[in-house]
């Protein structure tokens, strides 16, 4: 019997099983997950620390202390629990801390049981937070030792006062299993740094290559050039974030209320709503006072001041919650991690907070307990729809300003849940009258950046131009994500104008921008990091009309900005309207189809569009969609919006409308736009239709489209060739001239040249024979002579028309006005910027009048190279009093009438003349809305030159 060549079924299964085992073993050994999952190799990120490490314990470190002793006084300690689950990111509205606790936090019984345990060990529970993630404790060293099963020891380490557990801490198993981290048992090893530094004076030596500080950027200039002034008027009437709250987390002595009031009096444009600043001192920090700038460590007061000024300037009318912990001990005055965690929990517990901004950081490689404790809190913010921002730092991505300390990113900006903000260096172009006309950005050499050693890069970050550098650095989280002006910026502090540098300027400005986007959208954008990378990766390279403008030029200790994403400035600086449209467009889809695509003047097109949820694809019904046909030129009698419609979507999300083009339109194209701005939705789409006479003959439109254009061309040429060949065959050939036939005039003869008539004399006729007919009787009919040849054409014709040796002249090109930019419509599916007319500006006391802008131009003259330029100043534009030179570090700028009080101007829209001066500082927590004056007053001379080019919304 012949053996079968096919292996038995069992043998096949055995081979497949063995192969699968080998592949699994190889995959496990390699530790590499499938590409695109966003997970790093097993060795890329340190494994999660055990409980002792999460509580701040480091084995053997206590033996290195000098002057060891038992800590004295009351010690703050925070215990942070793991949430039961993680949230989904963006929601229909803000999720409160209590609602988050009900959905994700520990059970009320478990939370209460843990609090009772610590009370039983002699500790005081100072805070039970509404999210049920943190318990704040306080007690002496004996009670802390007993509760955590350790022994705390204080002393000096590397010249700094520190405290740490000498033995591994522990908790009862029922509590320890749910604890994410404990902060407060180990203190003093890491110093929180504020991202603020003086601007070096001109010619000052720098430890890094100096890129020049450029001109000082005032908040009004930043509003104009980053597009916020037009963004406020996106819907045609001013929309300010009056329903939004921004929490600003820091530590120290607070701020001076008079500094804040003076800044907003000068910075806020006419019609801006009043600023609302509410202080939240935590754990015994002092309330704001005008004497705060005179504190021992005034840097924290300066930082809190500029955080309030720059976030409020970008978000007029928003509530600014100043949340700050008490200072630590000298010389660094850095706060304890427990107090700073209480400040974070305070911000999370405030109602209506949609944005949290932190302009500080700490070395990522330090104490693991802080990262372990804050990870659940950052996750909570993302789940509740709160955007958290943090400065990337001012050491250029290095552990030392000299770029010799080793690359290091700062926490919390390195967290994947945090929008990390880097810095740019701005150079302003000015007209002869001093008016700002251009805005050139390069990377600021102090901008923090680099790659995390603790967090792997999530999948949404390894996209576009960010994928290459991130993957080449071990697929670690890349920092920063975005950037804004940081190299030379203005603040009003301690009664004077100052300039300073730092990513702490860029961070609160971005916080204000996010708050304004939340207001325009009608709900929090929430955790926008994946959308930021989606927008950055999908932007066409080199295109100006984009929401994130990449920075090209400059660098830090880690990388160089060469366009696209970089570890210096992330995806670049914002253009408010375009960025907003790109971000919200990533949540909602608006499909668009028009027919026909070519229409004659006087014709119409049918528009079909569907509104769907971008994430789920579910149609959105009963929503108004505005559909418009708009001219793409201003030339001719018929321009602007031709026709419009505002139908509601049906049950499947579809709407249809007919739009017409007038007979008098002289342009060649028109734009069809669909837009949704209702029901808390925003989406837009646009396409272009051709306007010409082909619209009268739809069948002819096909010959303009590939591949039919090629087929038509080949067909026409084939018909022409065949027709010519047939006509050539039917034409008889003429015999050569001879004695019986004269040659035609114009032919080449024996002596004639080209074109010379040659006449061959005819032979004399023989005499007529007798009986012949008369001479005037016509002879038999003959073929008529052919017509003369046509005039030469093509190259031969040109040669015959141009004298020998003379070149052929070409028509002069049509001149294009220098101020016109060819319009390039964006492709379907990409959002466009609607034209928005800002409110007219109103001169303010002590300031020159500002020119009106007829419309917002999204492609404002912005350069990304070493030079900047812009259009010439408008006729009659006022001269600017701006500062063009660099100032000494934190120097007070010269100002006339230094001691006079400023006049409070009405902050509400349409207010009357300035009010009378007020007396006394503003009470803590009170609104900064000025009182209206009884009548017009003459403002006193301004103490200082007004901010450069401060724009109205």
What is the CA–CA distance across the termini? 95 Å
What's the main sheet like? 9 strands, mixed
Helix-strand category: alpha+beta
Gyration radius, to the nearest Å? 38 Å
Helix proportion: 10-25%
> Quick check: average pLDDT?
75
Low-confidence stretches: 1-47, 87-92, 201-214, 738-766, 770-784, 789-953
What amount of the residues lies in strands? 15-25%
The tally of beta strands, per DSSP, is 36
Counting H and I runs of at least 4 residues, what is the number of helices? Answer: 19
Overall body shape: elongated
Fold and architecture overview:
The protein is an alpha+beta fold and 953 residues long. The protein is built from 19 helices and 36 strands. Strands 10, 11, 12, 13, 15, 17, 18, 21 and 36 form a nine-stranded mixed beta sheet that branches. Strands 29-35-34-31-32 form a five-stranded mixed beta sheet. Strand 34 (669-676) and strand 35 (683-691) form a beta hairpin. Helix 9 (257-267) runs parallel beside helix 10 (299-314) and helix 11 runs parallel beside helix 12. The protein is elongated and about 115 Å long. The chain starts with 8 loop residues before the first helix and ends in a 90-residue tail after the last strand.
């Amino acid at each position: 019997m012949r053996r079968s060549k096919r292996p038995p079924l069992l043998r096949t299964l055995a081979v497949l099983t063995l192969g699968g085992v080998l592949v699994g073993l190889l995959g496990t050994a390699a530790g590499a997950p499938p590409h695109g999952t966003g997970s790093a190799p097993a060795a890329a990120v340190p494994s999660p620390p055990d409980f002792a490490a999460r509580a701040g314990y480091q084995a053997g470190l206590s033996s290195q202390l000098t002057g060891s002793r038992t800590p004295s006084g009351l010690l703050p300690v925070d215990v942070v629990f793991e949430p039961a689950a993680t949230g989904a990111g963006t929601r229909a509205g803000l999720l409160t801390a209590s609602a988050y606790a009900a959905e994700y936090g520990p059970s009320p019984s478990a939370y209460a049981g843990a609090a009772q345990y610590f009370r039983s060990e002699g500790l005081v529970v100072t805070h039970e937070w509404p999210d049920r993630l943190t318990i704040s404790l306080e007690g002496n060293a004996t009670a802390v030792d007993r509760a955590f099963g350790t022994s705390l020891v204080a002393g000096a380490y590397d010249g700094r006062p520190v405290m740490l557990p000498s033995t591994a801490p522990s908790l009862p198993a029922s509590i320890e299993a749910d604890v994410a981290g404990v902060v407060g048992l180990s203190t003093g090893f890491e110093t929180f740094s504020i991202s603020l530094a003086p601007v070096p004076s001109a010619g000052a030596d720098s430890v890094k290559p100096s890129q020049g500080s450029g001109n000082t950027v005032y908040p009004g200039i930043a509003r104009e050039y980053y597009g916020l002034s037009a963004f406020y008027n996106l819907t045609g009437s001013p929309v300010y974030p009056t329903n939004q709250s921004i929490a600003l987390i820091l530590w120290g002595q607070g701020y001076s209320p008079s500094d804040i009031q003076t800044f907003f009096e000068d910075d806020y444009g006419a019609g801006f709503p009043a600023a609302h600043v509410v202080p939240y001192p935590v754990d015994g920090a002092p309330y704001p006072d005008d004497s705060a700038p005179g504190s021992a460590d005034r840097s924290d007061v300066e930082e809190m001041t500029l955080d309030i000024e720059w976030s409020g300037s970008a978000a007029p009318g928003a509530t600014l919650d100043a949340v700050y912990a008490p200072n630590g001990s000298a010389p660094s005055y850095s706060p304890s991690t427990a107090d700073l965690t209480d400040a974070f929990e305070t911000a999370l517990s405030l109602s209506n907070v949609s944005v949290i901004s932190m302009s500080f950081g700490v070395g990522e490689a330090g104490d693991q307990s802080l990262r372990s404790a804050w990870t659940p809190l950052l996750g909570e913010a993302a789940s509740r729809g709160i955007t958290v921002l943090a400065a990337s730092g001012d050491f250029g991505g290095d552990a030392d300003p000299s770029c010799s300390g080793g690359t290091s990113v700062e926490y919390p900006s390195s967290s994947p849940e945090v929008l990390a903000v880097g810095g740019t260096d701005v150079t302003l172009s000015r007209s002869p009258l001093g008016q700002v006309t251009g805005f050139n950005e390069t990377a600021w050499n102090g901008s923090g950046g680099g790659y995390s050693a603790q967090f792997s890069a999530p999948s949404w970050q390894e996209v576009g131009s960010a994928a290459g550098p991130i993957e080449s650095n071990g697929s670690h989280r890349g920092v920063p994500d975005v950037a804004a002006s940081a190299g030379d910026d203005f603040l009003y502090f301690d009664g004077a104008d100052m300039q300073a540098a730092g990513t702490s300027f860029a961070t609160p400005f971005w916080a204000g921008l996010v708050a304004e986007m939340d207001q325009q959208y009608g709900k929090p954008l929430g955790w926008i990091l994946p959308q930021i990378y989606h927008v950055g990766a999908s932007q066409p390279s080199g295109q100006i009309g984009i929401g994130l403008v990449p920075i090209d030029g400059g660098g830090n200790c880690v990388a160089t900005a060469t366009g696209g994403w970089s570890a210096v400035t992330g995806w670049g600086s914002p253009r408010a309207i375009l960025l907003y449209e790109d971000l919200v467009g990533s949540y909602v889809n608006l499909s668009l189809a028009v027919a026909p695509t070519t229409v004659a003047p006087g014709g119409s097109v049918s528009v079909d569009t569907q509104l769907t949820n971008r994430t789920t694809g579910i149609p959105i019904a009963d929503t108004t969609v505005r559909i418009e046909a708009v001219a793409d030129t201003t030339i001719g009698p018929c321009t602007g919006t031709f026709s419009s419609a505002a139908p509601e979507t049906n049950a499947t999300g579809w709407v249809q409308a007919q739009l017409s083009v007038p007979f008098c339109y002289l342009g060649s194209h028109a734009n069809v736009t669909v837009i949704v701005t209702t029901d808390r939705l925003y989406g837009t789409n646009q396409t272009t239709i051709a306007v010409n006479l082909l619209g009268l003959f739809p069948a002819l439109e096909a010959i303009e489209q590939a591949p039919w254009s090629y087929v038509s061309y080949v067909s026409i040429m084939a018909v022409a060739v065949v027709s010519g060949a047939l006509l050539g065959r039917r034409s008889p050939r003429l015999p050569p001239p001879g004695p019986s036939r004269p040659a035609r005039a114009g032919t080449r003869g024996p002596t004639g040249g080209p074109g010379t008539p040659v006449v061959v004399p005819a032979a004399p006729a023989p005499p007529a024979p007798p009986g012949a007919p008369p001479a005037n009787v016509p002879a038999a009919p003959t073929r008529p002579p052919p017509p003369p040849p046509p005039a030469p054409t093509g190259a031969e014709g040109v040669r015959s028309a141009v004298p020998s040796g003379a070149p052929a002249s070409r028509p002069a090109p049509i001149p294009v006005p220098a101020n016109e930019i060819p319009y390039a419509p964006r492709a379907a599916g990409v959002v466009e910027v609607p034209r928005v007319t800002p409110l007219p500006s109103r001169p303010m006391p002590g300031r020159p009048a500002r020119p009106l802008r007829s419309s917002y131009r999204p492609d404002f003259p912005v350069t990304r190279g070493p030079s900047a330029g812009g259009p010439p100043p408008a006729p009659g534009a006022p001269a600017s009093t701006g500062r063009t030179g660099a100032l000494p570090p934190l120097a007070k700028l010269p100002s006339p009438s230094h001691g006079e009080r400023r006049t409070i101007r009405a902050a509400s829209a349409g207010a009357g003349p300035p009010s009378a001066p007020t007396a006394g500082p503003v009470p803590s927590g009170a609104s900064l809305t000025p009182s209206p004056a009884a009548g017009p007053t003459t403002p006193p001379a301004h103490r200082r030159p007004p901010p450069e080019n401060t724009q109205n919304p």
